[in-house]
Each structure stands twice: as C-alpha cells, then as structure tokens.
C-alpha cells in the first residue's frame, strides 16, 4: 500500500472539486488575459534595475546574452507548466500538479513554499513601489513624513503607509472579480510596455558603437566578500561566480533570473480560464517570449548608450538618458517603473490567494477559506486575510534581505513541476494532454539541472532561511494537515470495518 504521506489526488477528482458550487471559481479569462497577466508580473524592477548591476559587475554588453540564458531556463520550466496547466486546469499551480503526481506531503511542501514566495514577493514589490512614488513626490516638492514613508536609510521608526494602502486596494480589486483584475492589469501593462518601448526606440538614437567594445569583457576574478559570491558554491565546489568572460554571462544569468520571476503565476489562474487546454500554454509561453525579447532589446540599448563600466546600479536606464543629455526621460522611466510594479504586486497577491484557496479546498488548510463569494465567485476570505497580513508586512518590515527567498522558492517550484511531468507521464499515460512537453524525459531533466544550478548561485543564508521555513511547514503538516486532509477523511470512510470479535 502507498504511504499516506504520498497518496496522490486523481486528476479527475481535482477537476470534480472545481465544479462544486461552493468552491467553483468564475471562468472569465482568455488567452489574451493570461498573456497580459504574465507580462504584467514579469516586467518589473528587473528590467529597470538589474540591467545596470549585471552589466557593470559581470557581463558588460553581453548582458543581453545573460537575459537569453535566463529566458531559456524559464522556457524549459514553462514547457512543463504548460502541459500541466492544460491537463490539470485547477487553481494551485505547482501545488496541484505535485498532488496529482508526487503525493500529499510533497504537494504540501511546495504549497507551503509558494505561500512564502508570493507573500514576500508581494510585500517587497509594494515597498519598492512606495519608494518610486515617494521619489516622484519629492521631484514635485512634496516629501512624505518620515513616520509614514519608507524606512530605508532612516532612523525614524515608521509605517510605510503607501505600501500598505497599495496592497489593500489591490486586495479589494481581486475580491471584486478576475475580469476586473484583468481589465485593470491590461491598462497598466499597456502603460508599462509603452514606457519600455519608448526607452528602446528613443535610446536607439543615442547608441555609440564604441560602447560595445568589448562585447564580452575579459574575465576577472571576483574579489572575496562581494555580494555575488555564493558561500554554498565555494563550500561545495571551491569556486565563486566569475566577473566577465563567458562564465560572467552565466553568473549574470543567475542574477537577472529575478527579472523573470512570475510567469508561473499564470498557471494559478487555470481554473478561471474559459478554455484552459488551449489558452494556458499560449498565455504562459507567449508572455515569457514577449518579456525576453523586451529584456534583450533594453539591455542592448542601455549598454550602447553608456559604457558598461559607467552605468548606474540604482537607475541605469534613467541615468543613461541623463548621461546623453536627456534628463526628461528619467522622470518618465520612474513613472513607468512605479506603474509597472502595481501589476506585479497584484498578480503576486493573486497567485498566493489561489494556492491558499486550493490547499484549503483539499483540507490541508482550514476549509473556512475554501468558500467563494456568492456574487463575485472569488475566494474572498483568503484574499482578505492575506491582503491584510501582507499590508502589515509591507508597512512595518524591511524585507530586502528576505527577497532572495522569492527566487529560491520559484526555482524549487520549477524543479518539482519538471519532475512531476515525468512521473505523471508514467503513472497516467491515459490522460488527454492538450499540450505535451516535448522530449520527455530529457527536457524536464535539463530543466531540473538548470534550475538547481541557478539555486546554487544563491547565498548560503538564503538556503538556511528557506530550510527553516520548510521545517516549520513540516511541523504544521503533521500537527494539522495530515489528519484534516480530504483525502485522509475519504480513506477513513471507505476503509473496511474491523472484523467482529
């Protein structure tokens, strides 16, 4: 008999659960909506900030190749996500996929991981959004009181009111319905992409060919103690990430991976998609392709406008325009970054509430949170709870050091989904798969290896914090989830009665 810890939930049962009236979400999203969601969450601070960091420290003009490498790693995972999302169109993304293939305990682990990833991601982005807004306000001559503004660099204890209000407003929009969320996202994404295209088109006129020489700078050793050093890598392999050269491109790829985080959130909306078998693969792969192209073009433009050694780390795009004598673009780019972070924050919050809802519907979290709103057909209870908690986190807690947990959590989910594709192909070859990941098991294995390689480039402190969160999750599972699981209760009701004495 299979251990209760690894009991799997049949795909057919997962789909039947979505049809129960009290748990059914409204199906209103199209392939275009999903693509917009994907672009909305992927394009954020990465394209506005990381370009300068990795160009100056690791890859020079070859940063464009680093974005390609990171995009390929994400594409490998995206192909696996696309198969699962079209085969198992149920809220929960990697959590639901692993429940159908690996079993209950692995599903709980990945669900617990995603809850942390999305919560911290939402809070960190909200704080970043607040910083951009305060910068724009200061340019207009209005400064926020220290007690109500960002705490970064300030000795005054305060509450970041802008970050908290943003989370609460977006919580309200998500409660009111996915279609409203999609419309708001469409408008904001249109503004954000317009800003990016203006940067590409306008910046192209200020490119100097000499700035591309050399395109791949000569390799240099990374000085001990730099932030990009990974103690874990040095401990295991005796080497640290390289500055410049070909290896510098791969080191840069592990950093700019942050810029791609979020495309997997598209999969959490599978249950609210009108035709998930057709539209989920289009939404996931389409949004990833669009963002990769934009990232490559922006990195080529900014390193062509200003020599990589002179790029700003904090605001490379804006400062590159200043260096060419066009400071007006700095405010325009800051505005685009602030607008862009709005959708990133909302879609991260969306992803977390859907995972939380799916875990609650399966009994692994209190079932109180699995009821949908009678009118809006949205999981309003977990949305409100998580929105309030994250608003408090964003207001009080400086989360910069914890931001790397978002990255390791995403990569861990990539590994689980790739493994799950291989297992479900063997255990359920009979399932109809509207989209099939090519070259199984080779491609999923390559995806696992690529994700693990990027994980190894993260600081050892990130691994420790991630391990602590996972340990807490294991305790919660054995104290509550294991006995309250719907699967456990169904097994109890179907078990034969003991023989009479």
Describe, in plain words, how this protein is organized in 3D:
65% of the residues lie in helices and 0% in strands. The chain has 501 residues and is mostly helical. It starts with 10 loop residues before the first helix and ends in a 7-residue tail after the last helix.
Mass-distribution shape: globular
Helix vs. strand class: mainly alpha
Mean pLDDT: 82
- In total, the number of strands is 0
Percent strand equals: under 5%
Number of helices: 18
Point out poorly predicted stretches: 224-240
Distance between the termini: 25 Å
Please tell me how large the radius of gyration is. 23 Å
* Biggest β-sheet strands, sense, barrel: none
Q: How much helix, percentage-wise, in residues?
A: 55-70%
Oligomer: single chain
Question: Could you give the order of the helices and strands?
Answer: HHHHHHHHHHHHHHHHHH
SSE arrangement:
Layout: H1 11-17, H2 31-42, H3 45-59, H4 63-87, H5 94-101, H6 104-139, H7 161-176, H8 178-204, H9 231-237, H10 245-256, H11 276-305, H12 316-323, H13 328-361, H14 380-396, H15 403-427, H16 442-455, H17 460-484, H18 486-494
Structure described in brief:
The protein has 501 residues and is mostly helical. The protein has 18 helices and no strands. 65% of the residues lie in helices and 0% in strands.
What descriptive keywords fit this protein?
501 residues, mainly alpha
